[in-house]
Design brief:
Layout lengths: L2 H29 L3 H18 L13 H13 L1 H6 L2
Helix pairs in contact: 1-2, 1-3, 2-3
Amino acid sequence: MNLKTIILRLSALFYVWAVVLFSAALIDKLFGTIFQPLLGGWLLIGFITMLQKKIMLPAWKSNRSPIRVAFELLWWALWWPKYIWSK
């Protein structure tokens, strides 16, 4: 894997993470909740769980948009309790 591919994938993950957290911040601002820190913690625990359980992550393929794959990765991280209780 070359440096350009790594930078592209990391920037896609950063972009998606920023969009999700910005949306959560907007919800916080509009409704006066504490949704953003809870969502950030939930997704962080999801990433750690996915790495420790060695879950098969969405594949980075050349014919798929890196942004779409990054959104799929966040979607998988959202459902981390399912991976803890599965074998």
